[in-house]
Amino acid sequence: MTLVLGVGLRSGTSYRELRDLVDSALASLPPATVSQVVTVDGKETEPGLQRLVASLGATLFTATKLELSQQPVPTPSEQVDRLAGTTSVAEAAVILSGAELVLPKQSSTRATVAVGRLPEAAGVVPAPGYAVGERDVVHRVIAERRDVRRGFLDRPLADDVLTRVLESAHRAPSVGLSQPWDFLLIKDIATRRKIHDLATAQRDAFAASLPADRRSSFDGLKIEAILDTPLNIAVTCDPGRGGRHVLGRHADPRTTWFSAAIAIQNLWLAARAEGLGVGWVSFFEPGEVAAVLDLPSHVELVGYVCIGHVEEFAAAPELVRSGWAARRPLSWAVHQEAWGQRGLPGTAPSAVIAGDAAAATGVVRAVGAQVVRLIVADVAAAEYLEQADALVVQVGTAKPAADYGVLWRPARTVDEAVELGVEVARDLVLQGVGELQVELVSDSAEAAGLVRGVRLGALACGVVMDEPAEVTDSSA
How much is the pTM? Predict the structure, then answer.
């Protein structure tokens, strides 16, 4: 049995008082090991508590007053609430740790202790996580990471800060520990101007491909900060690094590029923790950038980022603030055991989203003005792919050639087609679509079901939707 101690104490409480209280509490329980001691933030520097933790061979964790106050406890105390900002420290700390409370709060003159039992599997004690405060910092840096393109300062990066950021990137996991990445640091303004010209050309090409309403929204977006930061970093991948027998790469060579992408994410998070903004530039053809940078032929460009000090970090991503796109709720992305069995951990999964499509109301609502012609067909006709406002949803089983004008949704049943239709509508709303004009170019039951699902999803999200014009010539 492995135990957790929740400890509440006043400043200056001696080690002897704490030790006597703990020994008295443990005496009523079978012999066991204490692995964790949990207390409220601010008490971790108390000498008596530090000595207690060391004598038990345990790890000390802390929690905020707010976190402790949210735990239901058997013996809340108004006096503790006045002193500590929570009705319990000892009991709440045990419950917050995930342990089962086996001994309620015991008191001495200046301290309290409660005891909990950690769950064990086959006699193996799980490794402890971080203290609550430290864990919150990890989640915070992930939540506050931003793709920054504006507000960079004309201030150089300190070498030690940059080295820490690169070290974090270099610690990324990689397939077979092949570490396929390299980092090319680019300060030279002439080189960056060449890269900027490539990005500008691709921006213009993308803008020209957009429908008029979408183009006007795009015109206000800044897509790069190549000349605005003191440093650009090109992150490359050597697909053959490690030779022939890299562990795990033989079955899926893509893991090499995945590894390099994870290194970029590590770099991004470490930079945010250092107060540095990072913007990932993707508006250029990798081969053209590789030529400007004179990369060896066997090395491929995976990412190109701009990094520097910024005025501030926005509360939300720029694409969200501008209304260009919105985040997809987690509940839409979690499947349990089998595809389509949707549900967050701890909830019963459901195979049906069409029946409760109205649940999208309040989660995401159409705010964009983009109009999309949605053509539901068995195959993608070339005439539609030439039209910027058209998006073909192909329900046939033959996989189409890669083209972003085509969504391949080969529904196996009518019910699945309805579900896919709801998802298509929801996803388009997240990308700024406010009106759907649907054309049904198929006589299949699956295509009709998909249109029905699109209607359900569109109505739930507040999208204007024309009734589908039904055309049954599936050869179109």
Answer: 0.71
